Amino acid sequence: MTSPTTADSSTPGAAPGKALYGGTGSRRITVRDIAAAKGRGEKWPMLTAYDAMTASVFDEAGIPVLLVGDSMGNCHLGYESTVPVTMDEITLLSAAVVRGTKRALIVGDLPFGAYQEGAVQALRNATRLVKEAGVGAVKLEGGERSAHQIELLVQAGIPVMAHIGLTPQSVNAFGGYPVQGRGEEAAQQLLRDAKAVQDAGAFAVVLELVPAELAAEVTRILHIPTVGIGAGAECDAQVLVWTDMAGMTSGRVPRFVKRYADLREVLGGAAREFAEDVVGGAYPAEEHSFH
Ligand code: KIV
Predict the structure, then answer these.
(1) Which residues are Mg(2+)-binding (predicted)?
(2) pLDDT in tens, 248-263
């Protein structure tokens, strides 16, 4: 393949033969590395991150792409949905995630209201995320409806990750978080959306809450990678909200989430033990004191 977006491992600037996850390269991952991974048929993981310290843990674990998602609304800022998240909030937390990492490609989400007015508004806000926070790419929701925005950002030199299927910023229109792309008409619309964002120049596309068979078809058709969340096993990459996958989220999590730890229990236990030590006089002990 000769297209610059499908650079193989011998292309200057591409990670030289290095896997996105498990590779030994230490420089920051770029969108060219992501394209090369699709060429190699390599699957890769993506997690959300909202602060420097957590991001540094994921960076050290080798996660190649971190998304400063507007899921920070629910998972970090205490809102009921992603809708209230602002550019100021995304910019502040994206900058922290960039500072906390050395290798991961950092993708900053454009929040609701930051690009719906049109391409010029999208460019203004995406430019802010790149300049003020230092992200390597931005993400925005919508397929055909967001193609103009994607085109202008890509022309301006800002890599764009698209997001189709269930787009949580439209929760009020969806009336919840239903699976998308079910039925012939909806499936055809999803395929049109996927092609539209690829044609507009997106370097990857998130497929959220889409039947596995449909996500597999999109993954076969597109030359850019698909990043699944509740979209089955055939996507090129998988993303989870970190607080869900690590067991920090309280209450019910979506069915597609796999919990890899129970941090809420671990952290709560540490807090209770500290409190009991203070109340009982066991902390601070002699070794924690100065004389
Ligand atoms: O904001 C977010 O975390 C996202 C992911 C769920 C893809 O958009």
Answers:
(1) 70, 109, 141
(2) 999 999 999 999 999 9
